Amino acid sequence: MDENITETISKGEARFDAVRNRVGFFLAPTIFLSVFFAPLGLEPPAHSLAAIIAAVVTLWICESLPMPVTALIGAVLCVVFKVAPAKEVFAPFADPLMFLFIGSFILARAIFLHDLDKRFAFGVLGIKWIDARPSRILFAFGAVTAFMSAWISNTATTAMMFAIGLSIIAFLIQHEKETGIKINRGYATAMMLITSFGASIGGLATPIGTPPNVIGLGFIRNLVGAEIPFFKWMLIGVPVVIILYIFLFLYLNYLCPAGVGRIPGSVEMISREKAALGPWTRGQRSTIIAFGTAVILWVSAGVVAVIAGDTSEIYRTINSRLPEAAGALIGAALLFLLPGNGKGEKAITWPDAVKIDWGVILLYGGGFALGVMSFQTGLAEAVGRGLTGMLPLSGEFGLLVASVIVAVLISETTSNTASANMVVPVVIAIAQAQGVDPLMPALGATFAASLGFMLPVSTPCNAIVYGSGLIPLMKMVRYGIILDVVGAVVIILTVSLLVPLIR
Question: Which of 19, 210, 226, 263 has the maximal Cβ count within 10 Å?
Fold first, then answer.
């Protein structure tokens, strides 16, 4: 994977970003002081927390500081302003979900180190059914992206598939020069967009597929008291992914056709890339064993729940003794025991393992801390009561619709992670204030937080592919709006239909 991929932006966009970054340093303290001294009628801890969250969200939107740093500052300010004792504020940083991501990040790191991502991608693209047909290449390429994104981070998947997509596009351009067979330039746009959009969609399939899933599950467990095992999440997430991906492919294939039915030579190019990877290595086999072990442990409790019921003794035993975090850490630990490629080497070394994105983990911890504190201080309840009277929708389904719409809108202007941190706790509070079961609207907001498709700044995935220079901004906006609307409808319908089955 190329880790030096950066977004290409115009001078005007660069100036705007620079101004936005600088404005945050002045705007955040101003908003903090305004909220802190405003007559809100809250208890002192809740009032202080409101000012802290307002400043943190401002810094997140302006990106004046790295998001993990902002999250840490928010947690520290909670201690300084006596929102809660330090032990309570920092407890979410040790939440089991943090260890789930540490383990899965280490597994993902090993997958990249041993080129298993490329082997899998080119293996699927080399299937005979594809037969050098652009529409089938587009479908398979996006499907591989979506599938991989269900297990490793959306950003990492996009960065890896982005490089492969560019190599396919480069081949098509070279082929056009050599044969004179014209390829519609819109096809390159489709290849890039299905990379980004496919990764964002695929991340919805599993709890570990994308950060908002983990954040939403944490809030649902801690604030609602509902456990959603790995397999039960997939009962909702997989149908959402399948429906959205099929729609994504159909409309990109229709709006951005290649202009030719078959591209001679693409099969040979993919075969060359596969051959360049060489035979399977010991390190690759070891990584597959470790990753497969983690996946089996992740889904075992859910499978038992479906077969024996979630009230059975065997389910309770497995669920309590082998939670998702334990499964991820067991899989990660196996990497240090199983053999690597060289003599005496292991599948991964500690120096390689610690190169995971610790900043993301700290960001999760800070977001959890602010969300949990908002409930402990009563701030979330006060906000919920206030917003209840403002929302035109009520009841379980009405709140589901409202939560999905709000989460989608917020995810367009700020990161999906920040969107989940901001929306899910408030949705839960509103539902509780109305006396409604918060599970359905909270899940809807969690899924919808990943639907940010319109702008390059909406997700890191969008930023990566926009940097190719192959996507006109207005095309990303136009195609992104379509997917946002359809995604919101699919999530609302799927969650409303399937959540009763997992309660």
Answer: 210
User: In this predicted model, what pLDDT tens digit does every residue of 72-131 receive, in sequence order?
Assistant: 999 999 999 999 999 999 998 888 878 887 888 888 888 888 888 778 767 766 777 777
Contact 160, 202 (CB under 8 A): no
CA–CA separation, 334 vs 292, rounded Å?
A: 11
* pTM for the full predicted model: 0.70
Extract the tokens encoding 334.
């196996």
Place of tokens 């050599």: 178
The CA distance from 101 to 105, in Å, is: 6
Question: Residues 287-324: pLDDT tens digits?
Answer: 999 988 988 887 777 677 667 765 678 878 887 888 87
Contacts of 479 (CB under 8 A, 6+ apart): 193, 197, 251, 252, 255, 453
Total residues belonging to the chain: 503
For CA atoms 71, 75, 81, 83, the dihedral sign is: positive
What tens digit of pLDDT does each residue of 38-63 get? Answer: 998 889 999 999 999 889 888 877 87
Does 9 have pLDDT greater than 60?
Answer: no
- Please give the pLDDT value at position 1: 38
As beta bridge partners, residue 346 has 339
Give the pLDDT band (50/70/90) at residue 8.
Answer: very low
Report yes or no: 97 and 364 within 8 Å, Cβ to Cβ.
yes
- CA quadruple 445, 449, 453, 455: dihedral sign: positive
User: In the chain, what percentage of residues exceed pLDDT 70?
Assistant: 88
CA distance to 68, 165, 300, per residue, from 314 (Å): 39, 46, 11
User: What Å distances lie between residue 175 and 163, 171, 172, 185, CA to CA?
Assistant: 18, 6, 5, 13
Which tokens sit at 350? 């500690």
DSSP code of 280? Answer: P
Q: Is-contact 433 382, C-beta < 8 A?
A: no
Token representation of residue 380: 């979330």
Q: Is-contact 301 312, C-beta < 8 A?
A: no
Residue 279, token pair as written in the block: 């035979």
Radius of gyration of the chain (CA): 23
Confidence of residue 391 (pLDDT cuts 50, 70, 90): low
Half-sphere exposure at residue 379, Cβ-oriented, CA atoms within 13 angstroms:
23
Cα–Cα nearest to 79, from 89, 69, 71, 70: 89
Q: What tokens were used for 384?
A: 């919920």
Alpha helices by DSSP H, 150-281? 154-179, 185-202, 211-219, 230-255, 266-276
Q: Which residue has the tokens 């994105």?
A: 357
- pLDDT single digits (tens) 192-204: 999 999 999 999 9
Are 355 and 403 in contact, with CB atoms under 8 Å apart? no
